[in-house]
Amino acid sequence: MTTPTHPFQIDNFVYYWAARFTMTIAQNAMIIVIGWQTYTIARESMGPSGAAAQLGLIGLLQFLPLFFSTPITGWVADRFDRRWITRATVTLQILCALALALVTYAGTMTLPVLFSVAVALGFCRAFAGPAFGALAPNLVPREILPTAIALSSISWQVGTIIGPALGGMAYAWAPYAAYALATALFTAALVCLMLIGPVPRTTIPGKAHPLRQIADGLAYVGQNKLVLGTITLDLFAVFLAGTTALLPIYAHDILKVGPFGLSLLASAPAVGASVTAIFFSFRPIKHNVGPKMLWSVMVYGSATIIFGLSQVMALSLAALAVAGAADMFSVYIRQSLIQLYTPDDKRGRVGAVSQLTISASNELGEAESGFLAAALGPVGAVLIGGGGAIVVTILWTYLFPSIRRAKSFDPAANTPEDLPKEMEAIA
To answer: C-alpha angle with apex 106: 101 to 111, nearest 5 degrees?
Structure first.
């Protein structure tokens, strides 16, 4: 049998890619509408500052379930069939979207309903993230995994572009339609996941107690300085410089572009990211991966500052697109390093740690942005965040020298002290 030279030559990966694509569209269509409904409902009774704090609370409520369940979710992804974990989480998201569609159609939407669904979605993401991330390397040969990661990122980024736009347009036509659309897309994702056949994978070796297995996965992250450095860099940079939670404020009060303009703002980072991901799918990065990742985070912080200062829609969209491109540059390198420098039997647990930091940077970052905007105003919050991302990158250059020494995705190219003993066979 001929060895595949491209991920799309593998049926299971095609189904995986389509499921990730449709699921991402659905998630982002929901998220943009949830944010808009939260802000508009809260603004009527609490004013702009109080509504900004409620946006922060939405992010916090999505993060807390993930925070408390992360050790378990990683172990589950390494212990059980990853296909069925993803199928179960998508099914729960179908129920969440359907519930929001019915409540919105009935005209009885309230903040407690939105907050309750945010918690449920947090649990979905907690279990789905490690399973989805660890499943991809089981579907393709190791040699083409970086290309598969780039293609997977394309599905996520393009979905991030289409999702908010479709959600905003559907909401403008009929508020419940955005959630109805998400329900249909989640259902399509579930069908694709059901088509993925059995895949080979490495299970957790031995019969150690589950708590011990969880601890081993967490310990591995601490031992592998390159993985630890890349994970925590994303945590602090995006935590500080994230602007997602503040986009409704910019659309409503600063740029005054309404819900459709909000959908454009939400899609702009993904436009830049998608162009970058498409480029990587044809021309993967091969050299100086660590230094390039550090520079990309610096650009991300700088673009965030420009967005914070802009009062012109075109400049705001351009700044967000550049930020998205820089973030994709960093994500591509980070995910490739994590997947290739982690043994398969630990990918679920390491992926859970990675997802926790990503969620902390996103959801907690949204909470931080919302609360900081309530205290200092949205512009001040964005400027502080962008500057903070630049400072963190400079610090990480010296705190984690293994990042700047990472010359390629091949573990053998790194210095031995940067790798734990478990990577010696791979290196």
So the answer is: 70
Q: Which pLDDT tens digit goes with each residue over 131-185? A: 887 787 788 887 787 778 777 777 776 776 678 778 878 888 888 899 999 999 9
What are the tens digits of pLDDT across the range 57-66? Answer: 776 777 777 7
pTM over 0.85: no
Cβ-contact 427, 414 below 8 angstroms: yes
- Spatial CA neighbour of 273 closest among 142, 175, 144, 159: 159
Q: Locate 25 and state its tokens.
A: 């569209």
CA 45 to CA 226: how far, in whole Å?
A: 48
In the three-class reduction of DSSP (H, G, I as helix; E, B as strand; rest coil), residue 312 is classed as coil
Q: Give every CB contact of residue 136 below 8 A, 6+ residues apart in sequence.
A: 13, 16, 145, 148, 149, 152, 339
Q: CA-CA distance, 234 to 403, in Å (whole number)?
A: 13
Buried/exposed 87-116: b ≥16 CB within 10 Å, e otherwise: bbbbebbbebbbbbbebbeeeebebebbbe
CB atoms within 10 A of CB 215: 15
Q: Encoding tokens for residue 187?
A: 């259902």
The CA distances from residue 332 to 112, 145, 246, 274, 285, in Å, are: 37, 11, 25, 11, 9
Record: fold of 7-195+209-423 = Growth Hormone; Chain: A; (1.20.1250)
The 3-class secondary structure across 365-416, one letter per residue, is HHHHHHHHHHHHCHHHHHHHHHHHHHHHHHHHHHHCHHHHHCCCCCHHHCCH
What is the rounded distance in angstroms from the CA atom of residue 100 to the CA atom of residue 322?
33
Closest CA to 71 of 203, 225, 210: 210
Residue carrying structure tokens 């409520």: 61
